[in-house]
């Protein structure tokens, strides 16, 4: 068993068909086993869907990602690029979300970050929304990194806090307590208010606005 596990962990790229069953399972659970509520007082979802909103920088905590690919419409997903770690586990995420029409930018705050930032600049210029998990890929849990703040400050695009809260869930023993919603739980997608970030922030300004955005995301996060 240990040998099989080691060999599996050494596989960096699995065939696409490998991710079809979990993708179908997520879609089935969201459609038939979950109650879904949308809290979006500013109608951002509709604005993004019909192309009536410029690309933004969205932030969602790492432990709420499981249903992210299925809770939005396909039209919205096709306008989204997710910043994903260049690690092996990140490749698995890329392959899974690609089935739902979400494109990826590879990079993190600790590895290939500059390359991901350049790709994110281009994605925003092309009208995509760029999605970050600002406490990933290693944490600390619920601790915002400066990456989204820097990107928003340089591009003039707002930051949009997004949370997916499950009424009942299992919590894994990972660093972030990754959440798996239980059958028949209610999933609530909460779209916070867009946050305008001042241009060309210095280190002190980045830290100030990092904390502001972190607090705003925590305001719509329910554990």
Structure report:
By secondary structure, the protein is an alpha/beta fold. It has one domain (21-219). 39% of the residues lie in helices and 18% in strands. It contains nine helices and nine strands. The strands form two sheets. Strands 1-9-6-2-5-3-4 form a seven-stranded mixed beta sheet, sandwiched between helices. Strand 7 and strand 8 form a beta hairpin. It starts with a helix and ends with a helix.
Number of helices: 9
Give me the secondary-structure category: alpha/beta
Task: Identify the quaternary structure here.
Answer: single chain
Mean pLDDT over all positions: 89
Taking the alpha carbons of the first and last residues, their distance comes to 35 Å
Overall radius of gyration = 17 Å
Strand order within the widest sheet? 1-9-6-2-5-3-4
Percent helix: 25-40%
Please report which band the strand proportion falls in: under 5%, 5-15%, 15-25%, 25-35%, 35-45% or over 45%. Answer: 15-25%
Number of DSSP strand runs: 9
**Domain count:** 1
Q: Can you tell me the residue ranges where pLDDT is under 50 for at least 5 consecutive residues?
A: none
Q: Shape, please?
A: globular
The main β sheet shows up as:
7 strands, mixed
Q: Spell the H/E element sequence.
A: HHEHEHHEHEHEHEEEEH
